[in-house]
UniProtKB/TrEMBL annotation:
Provenance organism: Gadus morhua (Atlantic cod)
Pfam family, one: Orn_Arg_deC_N
Cellular component GO terms, alphabetical: cytoplasm
Listed name of the protein: ornithine decarboxylase
Orn/DAP/Arg decarboxylase 2 N-terminal domain mapped to chain residues: 62-297
Pathway where this protein functions: Amine and polyamine biosynthesis; putrescine biosynthesis via L-ornithine pathway; putrescine from L-ornithine: step 1/1
């Protein structure tokens, strides 16, 4: 069973205790036997009846529920604070709020969005080490106390703008083995921490903990061990100045799909022993993290339509002039209705590699060609894939891209007048029932593998539906 023999982090009350309604999440509930891929197929069928075959997303919000259960199993001591910058779609953040997640906000606008859902300020960390003074004042006025810093200048701003701040010292890490390093921009060295702690004390500021970020898509889990060890050093250092720290933030960068060399559970298998060694459970230190792509990457599938095509025929050599044109090598250039200024900005900003999946399976003997895929704008930089192998496709055919939920929607633009794709949200009924249970009762308690898991039919219902414990296993399948 999912939670058998595992300590579960105490439940954080969600947004409200009212009955959840699918309309609030802008989602459609999938009937038994139907999947998110079926929703993709249905949307393609419906759009193919007209000329406007616009690109679109299908987001399986049930995948977020699945990820939340997986997190509780793999990192039972760590409370997730979702990184809003990764994907701020309202249906996504509302789902995570209903599950009891905290939120990592980097700006006034992100704080406003999360507060608009009724999330308590205590469930927000203002995790931007370099903040505009006016936005620090906003956080102060709205009760957001936890915030990071890594410089004396930031301490001086906080001292002027936020008298109740609970400060978290961000330290630098060795992120040389991460795809997206961050320590080049943020983080104080261990040597510099002593001076910062001393300055904070002189300014009568309350420093409650330490944070770090090993960079996104870290390929060496041992980096976490070193960072946690370094955090312990800073905790001990802080005691010299009279601080009794109570918060450790281990950052983000956790993989959100399975097409990675280093899997999520391989990382957590390193993190958990390090936490037990340097921050024992009875030490009174609360541990949080800032997962972003972990929650949303695999939830999104993008469907794009081929709007144009160019066939490049390799020029014949003199010795082959009499050969049939069909023997010549052909390459294809396909143009689709989304690109790097839209959803595929992840190629430029997130080092993503986006490879297409054919919506219609090719015939076993169908010829394959070397192809490139291009976006719709007039910019030569707008290339999605330089080399891939595809059959001879036609205008109106569809290509699918999976794992498109992280750092795609949030940074897309309308460059050249091209609209961002619509998003269709779906969730299975078992996932919906599980989310309602978590929203009203907290995370499921450990149960016997053969026993039932009680899932509330709705928040307003006095009765409950007994669903087999296999429900939670199925959500993780």
């Amino acid at each position: 069973m999912l939670f058998k023999g595992v300590f579960v982090t105490p439940f954080i009350p969600p947004v409200t205790m009212k009955t959840l309604c699918p309309a609030e999440f802008n989602l459609s509930l999938l009937e038994e036997g139907f999947t998110a891929r079926d929703s993709v197929d249905q949307t393609i069928i419906e759009s193919s009846t007209g000329d406007d075959r616009d690109a679109f997303y299908v987001c399986d919000l049930g995948d977020l529920v699945k990820k939340h259960l997986r997190w509780a199993r793999a990192l039972p001591r760590v409370t997730p604070f979702y990184a809003v910058k990764c994907n701020n779609s309202i249906s996504v953040v509302r789902t995570l709020a209903s599950l009891g997640c905290g939120f990592d906000c980097a700006s006034k606008a992100e704080i406003q969005q999360i507060e608009s859902l009724g999330v308590a300020p205590s469930r927000i960390i203002y995790a931007n080490p370099c903040k505009q003074a006016s936005q620090i004042k906003y956080a102060s006025a709205h009760g957001v106390q936890k915030m990071t810093f890594d410089s004396e200048v930031e301490l001086l701003k906080v001292a002027r703008c936020h008298e109740n701040a609970k400060l978290v010292l961000r330290i630098a890490t060795d992120d040389s083995n991460s795809v997206c390093p961050l320590s080049v921009k943020f983080g104080a060295t261990l040597k510099g921490c002593r001076g910062l702690l001393q300055r904070a004390k002189e300014l009568s500021l309350d420093v409650i903990g330490v944070s770090f970020h090993v960079g996104s898509m870290c390929r060496d889990p041992a980096t976490y061990t070193q960072a946690i060890s370094d955090a312990r050093c800073v905790f001990d250092m802080a005691e010299e100045f009279g601080y009794k720290m109570s918060l450790l933030d281990i950052g983000g960068g956790f993989p959100g799909s399975e097409d990675v060399k280093l899997k999520f559970e391989e990382i957590t298998a390193i993190i958990n022993p390090a936490l037990d060694k340097y921050f024992p459970a009875d030490g009174g230190v609360r541990i949080i993290a800032e997962p972003g792509r972990y929650y949303v990457a695999s939830a999104y599938t993008l469907a794009v339509n081929i709007i144009s095509k160019k066939v490049i025929v390799k020029e014949q050599s003199p010795s082959n002039e009499e050969e049939d044109d069909e023997t010549n090598e052909k390459t294809m250039m396909y143009y689709v209705n989304d690109g790097v200024y839209g959803s595929f900005n992840c190629i430029l900003y997130d080092h993503a590699e986006c490879l297409p999946i054919l919506h219609t399976k090719p015939k076993p003997d169908e010829a394959m060609y070397t192809c490139s895929i291009w976006g719709p704008t007039c910019d030569g930089l707008d290339r999605i894939a330089e080399y891939c192998s595809l059959p001879d496709l036609q205008m109106g055919d569809w290509l699918l891209f999976e794992n498109m939920g992280a750092y795609t929607v949030a940074a897309s633009s309308n460059f050249n007048g091209f609209a961002t794709p619509d998003i269709h949200y779906v969730m299975s009924r078992p996932a919906w029932k599980c989310m309602q249970q978590i929203n009203t009762q907290g995370m499921p308690a450990p149960v016997d593998e053969a026993g039932p898991a009680c899932v509330a039919a709705s928040c307003g219902s006095e009765s409950a539906v007994e669903l087999p414990a296999k429900l939670h296993q199925n959500l993780l399948a």
